[in-house]
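User: Predict the structure for this protein chain, please.
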Amino acid sequence: MTAGVAPLEVATQVYVSEGRWVVMCPDCGGAQFAARDDHRFMCVECSNVAIEGLWRPVVWPDDHAELEAELERRPMRRNQNWVPDETVEDLAAEFAANDPEVI
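Assistant: Here is the predicted structure, written as structure tokens:
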């Protein structure tokens, strides 16, 4: 039997850490890689027990391809980070204002 998907009210958002799309559990803080083709999240730490074991919806930004393109301008993966309140323009401005090796 497969668990159902919880309502969007309990969704979590992806973010980028060191060039990787990641999703974090809002309940226990566990994190894992986000799947581009499957926008559901089942925490491997707590099994989404706080939402009765249902899959948690994962929200991806509509402009994820543009965000990736801007992040790929950075020379090192450790500099490729993004959080949901940043825009593509924010990333470009940060890149322009700093030595790419330090952002």
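The longest strand covers residues 12-17.
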